[in-house]
Amino acid sequence: MRIFSGIQPSGEIHIGNYLGALKQWLQLQEKNECVFCIVDLHSITVPYQTSTFKKRILEKAITYLAVGLDPKKTIIFVQSQVPEHTELSWLLSTVTSIGDLLRMTQYKEKSKKYKKQINAGLLNYPILMAADILLYQTEAVPVGKDQAQHIELTREIGRRFNQKFGQTFKIPKTFLPKKGAKIMSLTEPEKKMSKTDSPQSCIFLFEKPKMIRKKIITAQTDSGKEIKYNPSSKPGISNLLTIYSIFSDIPIAKIEKEFKGKGYKIFKEKLAELLIEKLEPFRRKKKELENQQALLEKILEDGKKRAQIIASQTMKKVRKNMGLGKI
Question: Is the pTM of this model over 0.85?
């Protein structure tokens, strides 16, 4: 089965990103044909620093490799280096209604945040995302819950195109992780963990042990001292239990039993130790890769070539079905 997904080169990856996407990718690469992209074109819909942009792209490539993605098993490349993405995006815009785009939750949220910088790219973001996915005849897309709406629109765009121009694209399905699809903020557990909030609200993938311990110990919990999973009445401790469960591969019920009567302090100390241990291999691998720019560039170049073979085949079919191309 062919899998496609991607992450923007904007800011550091936190454990919510890892559990919601990257951890799935590692499992999927073992038995599937995986195409994993650094979606730099999506990043330029909001303000960004051009002077550090290329560095951030390489940092994201390091992240992919540090967590365990294998370029021998997967295609890893940079979105903007395969021009078929933008070509297909324009063509798909002709079968996408403005009403669909205006309904997208992400557009509503970002247009409020960047009121003075609302651009057409921000509105058309889901069309480019659809192009990313449909270009590779993708069968499944592993994403977090926040992107599920965009995948559903991708499916609708693909169906409309097929109905209008003939069978062209495979219609992908959404892969959501069974647990950990939405990790919440450490400081406001009613909100999703996000790097755009306070740094205290999330644990970054390459966080130093001292900071991991500090953030977990000071993470917001709830009234009482009972270690019990109940997101509606105890969102703080429920979020920490979810994190503990996923990183330890221990069911929440068993963790509740282990910490029965021990209180939040002991639980948090154990969780901090667990995260420090589990994230250490990522920190170590990142340090190794930071001094291997030539290797990183070769991996991305090879990935681009492999991606372009698939992309060009799809675009030949798209142009033919739309009546475009040589006269």
Answer: yes
